[in-house]
Design goal:
This protein has 103 residues and is mainly alpha-helical. The chain is 59% helix and 8% strand. The protein has 2 domains: 3-65, Arc Repressor Mutant, subunit A, CATH 1.10.10; 76-103, no CATH class. The chain has helices spanning 27-37, 41-47, 53-65, 67-88, 92-99, and strands spanning 3-4, 10-12, 18-20. Strands 1-2-3 form a 3-stranded antiparallel beta sheet. Helix 1 crosses helix 3 and helix 2 crosses helix 3 (53-65). It is elongated and about 50 Å long. The protein starts with a strand and ends with a helix. The model has no long low-confidence stretch (mean pLDDT 93).
Length: 103
């Protein structure tokens, strides 16, 4: 079950997670791709052809109107990753790549 929002193409899951209507694509996934890879909405569409440009632009509008919440979630996710890495340690493959100067 999802709940309609004031944004065309955007619904909220039962847990209040904003997604693109009719998909399982979370808005934060689109946001992270634009931030991590520098993708434009057109590039997001190229990488995810099942999403329309209207859906992608609506997702970005939702993000910009709720940026503080998304940025907080992104910081929390990064902190969680840092904690996991600190507890697990570096992988053998990563160590080898560093030794070869590839990282």
């Amino acid at each position: 079950m999802s709940i309609a929002t004031a944004y065309e193409h955007i619904t909220l899951t039962e847990n209040d997670v904003p997604i693109i209507e009719g998909t399982t694509t979370k808005i934060i996934e689109i946001v992270l791709e634009t931030k991590a890879y520098g993708w434009s909405p057109e590039e997001v569409h190229f990488q995810h052809p099942y999403l329309s440009l209207g859906q992608i632009y609506s997702a970005m509008a939702y993000y910009f109107d709720h940026a503080a919440e998304f940025e907080r979630e992104i910081r929390e996710r990064l902190e969680k990753v840092r904690n996991i890495r600190a507890n697990v340690g570096e992988s053998k493959a990563r160590t080898k790549l560093k030794e070869k100067g590839l990282l």
